[in-house]
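Section handout, structural biology tutorial.
Before the tutorial, make sure you can parse a SMILES string by hand: atoms, branches in parentheses, ring closures as digits. In the record below the ligand is zinc ion, and the chain has 344 residues. In the tutorial you will relate the predicted structure tokens back to the input. Do not try to memorize them.
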Amino acid sequence: MKEIFAVRNFNTFFEMVSALPDDAACRQYLEQILWTNGTPTCPDCKSNEHYKLSSKGEFKGQYKCKECKKRYTVAIGTIFEGSHIGYKKWFVAIYLFQAHKKGISSLQLSRDLGLTQKTCWFMLHRIRKVMGVTDDEVQLDGTVQLDETFVGGKNKNRHWDKKVPQSQGRAHIDKTPVLGILQQAEKEVIERPHKVIPGKIVKETIYLKNAVVKCAVVPDTKGDTLKPIINKHVKDGSIIVSDEWQAYQGLNAKYDHRTIDHRAKQYVDQAGNTTNAVEGFWTWLKRSNMGVYHVLSRKHLQAYANENAFRYNNFRLKDKPRFDLTLQQSNTPRLTYKQLIGKK
Ligand SMILES: [Zn+2]
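Predicted structure of the complex:
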């Protein structure tokens, strides 16, 4: 994570509302986060040479590039581009959405912000899309657990389903398979002198590697579908732990592949190999999120999975840095309303 030169500091939602009291303050904060040292940068030619446009333009943060003569604001290319909602309401939505363990529903947000539910539904989808965005950049390594689960359905069983024994890979009518890839945390407990009390020794847990989960919504759970995704996201030579599902056969060509025999009710083998963490993630998803969203369609499932992976992967961050991280990712290709509802 890039170190953020933040002009204003706050630690809670309450403090943010006073630290960033209006759209202009929020916009300046975003400029600090997205531009190096907050220096205006042309989105087209990347030049820092600019004119600041006066009066109304200045309030909106409009600049003109000295090189290519184009006008721009920090919103160009972000989820805020072309939005009439105003930065402050956006910031409130982003803060609440990433800070609340269960997210927030569009209905609740529309009451809180005084916007229509449709507008809020669209805002949340844009936020959700940028929350999960860093996932593709870094390959997982160390010890990596694999597992799939089945989600959704048109009938009343609209929840993350527990895998039915012996049924992996079979067609689950109107359920969508999701592959989970989880890098295990590596930590060690060290002993060090107490920071205040002389002579006292305390124990401290040091994280050498964070737990990181990635989810991929997949059409089926065959080897030809799963293996390219695993190869892309897991570094060669890593330890991979999975159950004995046949789709995972052949992974030992590139990885140290260890299998757990779930049919024999084995969950941790004698060497300590387990898929408990990734299975725990599925359970966590069920409890943390699915109560908030009443409708979960296959079309939006990847975005929901990414949203939850983001919360899981950054749970040790405090709300403010996680908020900053979300803003930092806000300049990824934005989602238009037509894309979202599937119209061209
Ligand atoms: Zn330019």
